[in-house]
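Consider this:
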Amino acid sequence: MLSAARTAATKTSLLRHRAARASHDAASRAFATHVSGKYESGRLYPVYVHPLSQVVLEHLQTARGDWVSRKGLDRGLTINYDGTFTINFRSEYGDDDVSNDAGRIWTSYDAEKKQHWLTVYKDTLLGRYPLKVCKDSSWHTEKYMVQETVDRMIERISEVDRKKEQVCSRLQ
């Protein structure tokens, strides 16, 4: 009888250990950095974010965090190798499936014109906003101008959403 209890306890302990190890491995893969097609657990690599993209992201987070959450932009951030970013809107179905293209907000750089852009695509809206207009502006002024640009973009998205809701309510 004692032997059976020990065997059961050993099996239970082994199963717990395997489950804990599997959970740890899954978490390690989730938090690992993707480098050259492999996930390397425990290795963290610096990510470059261009200063203008950083201002946009910080403003979205600090001043417009509630709007970001309501629109489902609190998931799906991708930082690109050149320091730009893309944020995908959550689909109308509430899932995070990228194939259900619900739109996105992204920054880009036009090397020919030497111009940074903030672009939004959502439903019928496609807008492109310059992030740096004046080459001689101070960093403080530039930061303020970028924040104003983000606010204009949010107002435009909200306006399109209100119009869409009005059309939908008329159809019902």
